[in-house]
Amino acid sequence: MYCGVMAFFLEWPFARAWALLPLILFAVHRVVHEASLRSGVMMVIAFVLEIFAGHPETLLHVVAVGGAYGVFELIFVTRRVRPILIALGAGAISFGLTAIFLLPFLQAAPQTAEHETRIGIYAHTTYPAMPEVTKRRLGNMFLPFYGGQPWHDDAISAEWDPQTARVGSVILALALMALVVAPRRRETWFFFVAAVICAWAGADALPVSRILHALPLFDIALNERYVYGAACLLSILAAIGAEGWMRSGGRSRPPAPEAGAATLVLLIAVALAVAAAVVSPSQLQLHLPARLIRINVFAELVPLLVMFVLLVARAAPRHALASVFVLLLAQRVIEDGGIYPTLPQSMFYPRIPSIAGVPKAGAEPFRVAGAHFAFIPDTAALYGMEDARGYEAMTNARLMQTYPLWCVAQPVSFNGIADLGRPFLSFLNIRYMIVPPDTVPISPWKRLVRDKGGQLFVNTEALPRAFVPAHVRYEPSSTPILTQMLQATNFADTAWIEAREYPPHQITNGPGTVTIRRAKLGLDLDASMDGDGWIVISQTAWTGWRAYVDGKRVEMKFANHAFLGLFTTKGRHHIRLIYVPDSFTRGRAISLATLALFVVIALTRRARRGKARQPRPAE
User: Fold this and answer.
1) SS3 track for 469-516
2) Enclosing H/E stretch for 519
3) Per-residue pLDDT tens digits for 381-406
């Protein structure tokens, strides 16, 4: 939490994944220098935790840092083959244990719009030079006031950037002190060079950013997130600097290291003061409060001046470092302590009339949404409701192609609903909508609740999650379907089925009725069909949905471009829809087999040790 970017992205998956970098480095060090089964188990634990942290892109970045550290450490040992074999074995075992998680991700990723963008465009584009981004991130790294601080209601939108390797002047000074007080430790120079490279990549600065973008896998990754690596490596380097101060300090020691460290700290303070003096006028012109600048400059410079005095006075290192630690905590609280304030538990799920007006979710599923910026996505989950809008890093590509029918896609964030008159909202099973207080209801919406912060509308024409449309039109591909859907005004009347085996034509469907209820891993449907026809289910058609009609598995088609379509014959049928991708079942088998093998090996080794300890009978 000494790192500003870690504090800001607390509880985001990539921050959680980067937090495990120290454990990865520790496991790598143990494997190289111990090369035993115990160190291999430690690496397996580290890898498994990293994978289950839930951000594969960060997995690539963290493993790359760990691999570079492992190569560096291997230079200084004589036995290299065994550590390499243990590391490869640990990686294979970790993959086996986490296959239940990794294989579904690998299957889902190619179905996303983000995958299409990264593979089809981003990977083939030369990484551009972005001096403005580099300037902004370096400014935020060394000057905590640069661009303002939104948590203090002061921010300059064009200058502020949360992705910065800001650790504060105390950590920075201790990290650079390591070069003076611990220059003979080989780790000092590795962590210094690695921190510089990570900070350079995090600032999107050439040539590092372009070199990374040219590498396989890194060409589709957001490599500016190496700011986390820079912050971690600077903190490790600071620990080396503190340890070197402890060992070289004291009045009985030669003063040379301390004198060099004192000079270095003073130079850092002068450099930061000059940078603040140069940058402050431009920030003031952008209406950044002078008070904010003064507070942050004070928090940056005063600890450095205290460190300088302690070093010059050759204070006892134990007491000096305790004082520095207190200054470090105070600095981080002043600069980044207000990002997420502590709040009473009662504030997390307040009873809001417009939200309380939504009935509790029962057996029949329905969706809710918010207009514009009301009821920001993910809020619904806190109240046990299902929101139709997305706020994910993996968006189904077909679903995103339907956005023009019902919402406005934002480049980085959730998709917003601006026009309540779109008929596709009814198809999406959106029964309730939280709207701003000045919104006037239009057909088919009616006001249910009004409070001082918003209103609750109900959709009188919301379609059930599964229904039988009056007509079905067959099309061999998705392009004409999207074009025709843009002109549609009643999705209860007509649905589109993508079927290459039929020529384009329209038929009368059913009729029939469907009752639907939630079930384990999916939905249960009871269909009463007066004629053969299609049931359309407004569930996004990710690969992995399975349909069973009267216990027999049947094939489904794309309905309305991105959703599920199921053909049934005349009569009464019980239908089960469950989401169980084949990649999950295969991964589950691999993970259980790996775990079983792991247990068998452990029990066998234990039995052998027990047998070896038994006393031999006297002869």
Assistant:
1) CCEEEEECCHHHHHHHHCCCCCCCCEEEEECCCCCCEEEECCCEEEEE
2) strand 512-519
3) 888 899 999 777 889 999 999 999 99
Residue with tokens 């050759």: 314
159, 136 Cβ separation under 8 angstroms: yes
Pairing of strands 471-475, 494-498: parallel
pLDDT-derived band at 240 (thresholds 50, 70, 90) equals: very high
Q: Is the pTM of this model over 0.70?
A: yes
* CA proximity to 424, closest of 350, 354, 336, 485: 485
Q: Which residues contact 313 (CB under 8 A, 6 or more apart)?
A: none
* pLDDT surpasses 70 at 254: no
- 599-610 pLDDT, tens per residue? 888 888 778 777
Q: Are 272 and 296 in contact (CB under 8 A)?
A: no
**Burial per residue of 219-254, b for 16 or more beta-carbon CB atoms within 10 angstroms, e otherwise:** bbbebbbbbbbbbbbbbbbbebbbbbbeebbeeeee
Contact 156, 147 (CB under 8 A): yes
Within 10 A of 398 (CB to CB), how many other CB atoms are there? Answer: 21
Instruction: Please state, in angstroms and rounded to a whole number, the distance separating the CA atoms of residues 104 and 598.
Output: 23
Domain 467-580 is in which class? mainly beta
Distance CA 406, CA 423 (A): 8
- pLDDT at residue 252, as a whole number: 45
Coil, strand or helix: which one is 270?
A: helix
Contact assessment for residue 277 and residue 315, using Cβ atoms and an 8 Å cutoff: no
| Spatial distance between the Cα atoms of 606 and 601, rounded to a whole number of angstroms | 9
Residue type, 66: G
The conformation of residue 390, written as its DSSP 8-state character, comes to -
Domains of the chain: which residue ranges?
Answer: 1-111+582-619, 130-342, 353-459, 467-580
Q: What CA–CA distances, in Å, run from 575 to 437, 527, 537, 546, 554?
A: 42, 7, 12, 10, 10
Distances 148 to 159, 195, 331, 332, 513 between C-alpha atoms, Å: 8, 25, 17, 16, 58
Residue 455: in which H helix or E strand, if any?
strand 454-459
State the alpha helices, DSSP H only, in 414-487: 424-427, 478-485
Residue 559 phi, psi (nearest 5):
-115, 140
**Residue 556 carries which side chain, given as an amino acid letter?**
M
Mean pLDDT is highest, among 29-43, 349-363, 597-611, for 29-43
Whole-angstrom distance, CA of residue 519 vs CA of residue 578: 8
Mean pLDDT taken over the chain: 92
What is the C-alpha to C-alpha distance for residues 210 and 597, in angstroms, rounded to an integer? 43
Read off the DSSP letter of residue 437.
Answer: T
Q: How far apart are CA 485 and CA 560, in angstroms?
A: 8
Tell which phi-psi region holds residue 168, choosing left (phi > 0), alpha (psi between -120 and 50) or beta: left
Angle between helix axes 227-248 and 169-181 (nearest 10 degrees) is 60
